[in-house]
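Late entry, evening session. Most of the bench is empty. Finally got around to the prediction I had been postponing all week. Sequence below, unchanged from the version circulated by S.P.
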Amino acid sequence: MLTKQTQIELSNEQVEEIIRWRRYLHQHPELSFQEHETSAFLYETLLTFPNLEVTRPTATSVMAVLKGGHPGKVIGFRADIDALPIQEETGLPFASNYDGVMHACGHDGHTAILLGVAKVLSAQQEKIHGEIRFFFQHAEEQLPGGAREMVEAGVTDGVDYVFGLHLSSLTPVGQLTITPGAATSNSDMFHVTIKGKGGHSSQPENTVDPVVTSAQIITNLQTIVSRITSPKDELVVSVTTLQAGDAVNVIPEEVKIGASVRSFNQEVRKKAVEAIEQIIKGVTEANGCHYELNYTYGYDSVVNEPGASAIAMEAIRRKLGEEAVIEAEAIMGGEDFSAFSNIVPGCFVFVGACSPDNPSPAPHHHPKFMIDEDALVYGANMFLSIAEDLVLE
């Protein structure tokens, strides 16, 4: 690390600007792969900052590059910019202007934080040893994810470390959590159609019942966690959708099942996929049915690299205090930041955003999701402190 001579303190004006950006973005949410207005706003705003090279790696993403006056490391900071198909019920004065679309996961805050950090650091060009890339990534909420598209566009070429953050509505503001190693899960899903022979409910002997077959499949899928994998393996297989028939006196021709599969370990992931198909195949054949299975590999687990994690922890403690950061357990949520951290040493940090006077905070992806805007300052200071340690002198 460099000898730190530059210590950046956010001014009240800079904090107010970050909050204004966040509220504007909150009012103008856009769904994954549709972030045209958002990316245009970011592009035009970034062009007003000095010393940045601003590009559009994909149709709805933006990257700004700040090349320092001296050679050094290349680091990347990432924020996701998309919203969710949710009708907002917060009652905020800056609630979404668009019916059925809401920033219900905090991406508006992530974007405003990184925009503020880019503006502050763009004025420090002569003190920077190396390069900082600011990734404003589209489509985190929808497979195949925008991170993969940005990586394929070459945004991480030559990057030494990449860092990201996520506001957490259930974690107290002022507390930042890091999980060394696997921090989020592999997030997969599958849909299977069980095909039988329909008929009247009074004559089941003339049918091949896909409902009974599906019930057996659903029950047996639970043995993957309880009996097929080790109790030490962290795995979730949850059947979440079931569609069958329209009339109570008719055995339908087919049943459709949907499920979510979460894991941390790639070996466990592979074993689960094999077990799922083996169970479906065995039960359907035993009952005389057929099946069509569509298994979708979602985002890989975000794995925080030890060196990058140590950098982030030290930077946070130095700037925000020893008690500001704690090690936390991994979560079963999915995150496509893994597309960056799979190829570049990275660290993903959760930033507490629960107000101390909110005893019942709404979870993410909820119509009443809200954040304490003080969290924006903690997030910005995290990025700034990492930059101070790695590329600023």
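Two things to note before I forget:
The chain has a mean pLDDT of 96.
The CA atoms of residues 50 and 123 lie 7 Å apart.
Will write this up properly tomorrow.
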